[in-house]
Amino acid sequence: MTGYGKAVAELPNKRITVEIRSLNSKQFDLSARIPPIYREKELVLRNMLLRRLERGKVDLTMNVDVINRDVSSKIDPQVLRQYHHELSGLAVEMGVTEPADWFTVLLRLPEVMKQENETLNDEEWFSIEQAIGEALEELTRFRRQEGEMLQQLLCGKVEAIRRLLMAVDPYEAERTEKIKSRLYEALNSLEGIEVDHNRLEQEMIYYLEKLDVNEEKTRLAHHLDYFLETLNEGGSQGKKLGFIAQEIGREINTLGSKSNQSGMQRIVVEMKDELEQIKEQILNLL
After folding, report:
1. What's the whole-number mean pLDDT along residues 64-79?
2. How far apart are CA 138 and CA 95, in angstroms?
3. In CATH, what number is assigned to the domain containing residue 19?
4. pLDDT of residue 203
5. 0.85 cut: is pTM over it?
6. Which of 9, 51, 90, 120 has the largest CB neighbor count within 10 A?
7. Rounded to an integer, what distance in angstroms lies between the CA atom of residue 110 and that of residue 278?
């Protein structure tokens, strides 16, 4: 499910902004863009996000703004030269004149200034953990709102299939009578043939039983009820709902294969359309 959360950790000499984005995905896929000093905590961050988000394509970004730079900060010559080399080449290529404050601009770029023996202390990490927790809370609120809308949408689609299922009854009764009438008319049109009415009734019953859809209707109604029960249970039910949707599809297909009446066939097509929309939305559920 999609979501977005943002929080800020205020420290005496730093301002750390945490942003977390989540997109739909069957698995948990984390992309973390964090400063090198926090790399040692990357596994901890991954487990923290996995516990809360369960799955999805997740982007974690941490930006650090230094407020009061420590006097021990020094320039990293290698990084500075690399920036200068690349930007100078682009300036020549684009025909842009280097500004007078070129050197000042370079000093402001990420990782140019570094602190000697910079280490992550417990107080700073505690503040970061709090910020990540706040961002996750905001992202979860986004997900919850989306989940409520999806729940309403799915309930509406399931009830639409149920209404279509009820609409099958008049067509089914009409279909049975038409089949009987057509067979009797065909037999009466034959000359010089004596009909064994007892055998005819037996064959008629056998034929109509093959076209009977009461079992399919009963199973389909049961699957619809089970889908709604599972949807209302809460928690991560996406995969389970997907399996139930498959069973619903099987019953609709069987119903369609037995429908030799145009009205029933149109209903089956409408059922399939509603079911496809359900399957599409299930992909957005956990």
Report:
1. 70
2. 45
3. 3.30.230
4. 62
5. no
6. 9
7. 47
Distance in angstroms (rounded) separating the CA atoms of residues 232 and 147: 11
The answer to whether residue 204 sits within a structural domain is: yes
Measured at the CA of 168, the angle between CA 151 and CA 222, to 5 degrees, comes to 45
Could you report the per-residue pLDDT of 161-205, keeping only the tens digit for each?
Answer: 999 999 988 877 666 666 766 766 766 777 667 666 666 666 666
Contact 220, 255 (CB under 8 A): yes
Structure tokens at 86: 């690349």
- Do 127 and 27 fall into the same domain? yes
Residues 81 and 131 in one domain: no
Question: Which tokens is 205 given?
Answer: 């019953």
Look at residue 39 and tell me if it is in a domain.
yes
Spell out the residues 6+ positions from residue 183 whose beta carbon is closer than 8 angstroms to its own.
204
- Do 129 and 96 fall into the same domain? no
Lowest mean pLDDT among 99-108, 140-149, 272-281: 99-108
Q: How far apart are CA 57 and CA 80, in angstroms?
A: 34
162 within domain boundaries: no
3-state secondary structure the chain: CCEEEEEEEECCCEEEEEEEEEECCCCEEEEEECCHHHHHHHHHHHHHHHHHHCCEEEEEEEEEEECCCCCCEEECHHHHHHHHHHHHHHHHHHCCCCCCCHHHHHHCCCCCEEECCCCCCHHHHHHHHHHHHHHHHHHHHHHHHHHHHHHHHHHHHHHHHHHHHHCHHHHHHHHHHHHHHHHHHHHHCCCCCCCCHHHHHHHHHHHHHHHCCHHHHHHHHHHHHHHHHHHHHCCCCHHHHHHHHHHHHHHHHHHHHHCCCHHHHHHHHHHHHHHHHHHHHHCCCC
In what side-by-side order are the strands of the sheet with 28-33?
3-10, 14-23, 56-66, 28-33
Structure tokens at 54: 């369960």
How far apart, in whole angstroms, are the C-alpha atoms of residue 176 and residue 184? 13
